[in-house]
């Protein structure tokens, strides 16, 4: 019996040691999980296709009765309109103020209609050149066509398959004012990077680092260019759509309608100024070796560059207009 107890005791010790040895440590598990998490390309700037697919402006309330505000309550404007509140008018506007309101609304709505038509006409004009054969888009390797045609070889897809999306490509071209020479130069810049066959000195690891940097920078460049027009498309097609503006015809805030029109004028004028600057910037690019192009892309996508400033301005101004319209719509019947 004593011998049996000794054997049983030794067996228990052996079993305990076996369990401790085989159990993975918490530290090991954490390290494995951290290092195995995949990195997603474009995680910082987001998905362009996702941006295009969003049909409802961010933060907009939808559904019957969602825009109703209890009487006497003030409505806070979106975070991009800080400190501004609108309280319902206690009584109807007098006749003289109604005339001023109607005038302000008409100016604003007409301005929206003109700009919407302008954007559409710019696109139609470019598409007309293609349909007439004056501009030929080449997606393959051949050059085709005659010397009388403007040939545009597409290379954006080499940066990311996201740029196969026709709407994205159209936005990029629109942000260059549909200028054929500027569009062609941008395509040449992307093609010169030879993203599928980087040839520089050094080992394969350093080549991969350079290729990844070029991919990220060229992706950011195309993203920013697309954003400059995406904001204009959303502004006219969603934020200032006729169905949203119709309600403002009954607004009592005449001065707010005037301010909205001023915001729109600023958006139009500044965006056009940026487009001219960006066209010149792209046309002036001197294509060089990989290292020179790396430096160039860093400079033109730097946070202080015109392209970044244009993308930031158009997105911010469009959002300010949206939240101001939302705010007016919420109190229009109070």
TrEMBL record:
Q: Which residues form a coiled coil?
A: 105-132
Query: What top-level branch of life does the organism fall under?
Result: Bacteria
Keyword list, A-Z: Coiled coil, Plasmid
Q: Per its record, how is this protein called by name? A: Antigen P35
Origin species, per record, is: Borrelia coriaceae ATCC 43381
